Each structure stands twice: as C-alpha cells, then as structure tokens.
User: Fold these one by one.
Assistant:
Number 1:
Amino acid sequence: MPPNARLMTEHDKQELNSFCEGSPVLSEEVPARLPCGFLMTEYRVVCSGCRSDIPMANAWVRRARHEFAQHSIETWDVRGVCTSCRMATSTYVRFRSNGTFDTIVGHTWRRGRYDSGEQDDQGNPLYNEFTPGDPRAFQYEEACFVGFWKYQIGIFTEIELAAEFNDFDYTEIESGVDVEDEITRAQFDALIAKLSPKLLELAAQYPKTQFFIAHGDAVTYRGRVTLNAFTPLLNGRLPNGLYLAPQSLALMISPYFRKGPDAGEVNMTTCPALQGITDKLIALA
Ligand SMILES: [Zn+2]
C-alpha cells in the first residue's frame, strides 16, 4: 500500500454504498454532452492509492446542474473503487458553459479547457501548439487564461482558496443550514492580513504584474476567495522599445522577456516568470 493511502473504515464503506445505490454507473452516463456543447467520451478516474485507472464500470456519478443568467454549471461527483487495490477515490469537477472546467486538486480548484480540435479561421489549433505571438501560449497550468482588462490583453492567473466569503448575516441563517466553506468577516479579515504581505512581496518581485484578492457572489463562483495576478502582455515590443513586428500584427510577448526573477528558457512563447507567478500563487493557497 502506498504511504499516504489508508484502508476504508466501516463508515467509509457505508457512505460509499449509499452513494452508489442512488447513483448511475459512470459508464452509463458517458458519453455526455456538457453545458458548453462538448461531447465528453471518456472520464478517467485515477486511483489515488496505486495510480492505476479505475474502469468506468466501477465508478458512480452524481450530476447536478445550476443555471444562472445565461450561464450554466454542471457538477460531477464521481466515486470509483480500484479493481487492483480496492481503495475508493473521489473526484469532483464542475463544467461551465463557457468551455472551462474546474477540478479539485488537494484544496485548490484548478481550471482547465477542453481540446476538441477547434481551429481558428487560419486553421491553427485553438488549444495547443500556438503560433508565436498567440497570447494563449503563455497559459500555464490550469490556473492561467488570457484576459482583457483595462484595455490590455494579458494573462490572468486565478487560484481559488478553500474559503467562500459573502459577508452573510449569521443571525439570519437558520441553524443546520450548510454554509460549506463560508467564512465569517473576522476569518476573512485574518486571511487578508495573512495574505497581503505575501502578495506585496510578489508584487515587488514581479513589477509588471498586478496582484489582488477577489471574493463575493457577483465576482467569483459562490463568492469563493481567489488569489489573482494579471500581467499585461506587450504587443510585439521588447522591453527595450524594439518592435519585433508591425503593431497591426498582434504578436504578444511577455513583459518579462529575458528578465525577471525566474531562471529558465526564455523565448517567444514561454515565459518562466509567468510560470513562476502561478507556481508561487498555488504555493500560497
Ligand atoms: Zn488502486
């Protein structure tokens, strides 16, 4: 047995049994059409004990759909039992109608995107092998995406913490209501006091990037508290002022081109600094 694995207790078994009884087998639910229209033909559950693949016939799924405004989110709660080591593994994913999905890795939500072979009007693949200058090439891990903010195109990094803050009035919440990861204002203030100095340190290390904390129902899903970084990209212009291409040709490069605190290969499509920012935010969470 791997060092971090543990055998199922009686309670675990009961909980798993009641989950399986009320839920369809995963192989009966896949292929499934997701809210964004993508046809998911395979859902891979990897055993957290021995890392082998759990067959879809040995896993059960609970699906729920949430609709708000023009958006919808579908959640998949999947439990599988490993055929080799008999350990149970849970995964939880939410699929958004905008084509992104989140999955819990440890205590962090990670964002991903499907690659179903979409192409732009030039015939370039949309989600891999970007041509030089395509800002999507700078996306790193699943936490990064291309965004447009304050008239600039850049790379957003968003890391969700295991905390939600909507500033509820707790006297109005009925006892017994499950508020899950919701934290109180005092806990939120303490969290901000703990994180602020660390974000300020990062801001000093990465002067081209804006760091901020977001929360609240109108901003993040369920008011989840998130750590964010936005790095505006340069349009074809090196930090020394030299243009690599006419401005009419969008050719986005990192403002940390050949500088910045992270060592590693620097070229037109990879930037160790943008990766470093993401890694450091994940470490903070
Ligand atoms: Zn296993």
Number 2:
Amino acid sequence: MQKQQETLTNKSKKCSVYGPVANVYAAANTGSWRLERPKVDFEACVKCGTCEKYCPANVIDVIKDKVECIEIDFNYCKGCGICANECPKKCISMVPERSEG
Ligand code: SF4
Ligand code: SF4
C-alpha cells in the first residue's frame, strides 16, 4: 500500500497540472489491461508536440533530436486514442495491445 501511494505521489508530480482526480487517473498503471496502444510512424512525424500536449495521462515525450522522437510510457498509457485523433499528420495509429506491430 505504501509503495502504491509512493508511486501515485511520484507520478502525480509530473501530472500536477490536471488536478487530484486526473492525477489518480493518470497514475493508474494500465499497462496490463489496456486494449489498444498508439503506434507512431516516425517518418511521417513532424515533431510538432500536439500529441504530447493533448495526452490526458501526460505520458508522451517528444524528443526532437532523436529519430524515434516520440517516447510513450506504456506503463501508464490508457490507450484512449486521443493522441492519434489529435495528431495533425495522422501518423499515430491505434493497434490491438496483443499485436506484434
Ligand atoms: S502530434 Fe503527430 S506529428 Fe505531432 S509530434 Fe505527435 S506524432 Fe508527431
Ligand atoms: S493513447 Fe491516450 S494515454 Fe496513451 S499516449 Fe495516447 S493520448 Fe496518451
């Protein structure tokens, strides 16, 4: 229980802009039960940062000087698809969690 609270507290530090309810939502480890996950076409990505801005769980980092410039923390990604929906280049697709791709 204490470890879980520490995890929530640590995760909440990153997500503090969203308020207490969203912080708990964002801090829930969803890696084991998410149905879909985002897959990025790095060649089409223009590194605009829109996905990072709209992700409600705040788990996307755009690292502009890397070829694979989008890093997603899949321990906490909810599979909601908002990043895919908001991407102006449509270079994020949602794929079934258990697929190979
Ligand atoms: S919104 Fe799309 S184009 Fe913009 S950084 Fe994210 S993946 Fe790349
Ligand atoms: S699927 Fe949802 S939670 Fe996961 S990275 Fe995209 S916007 Fe964030």
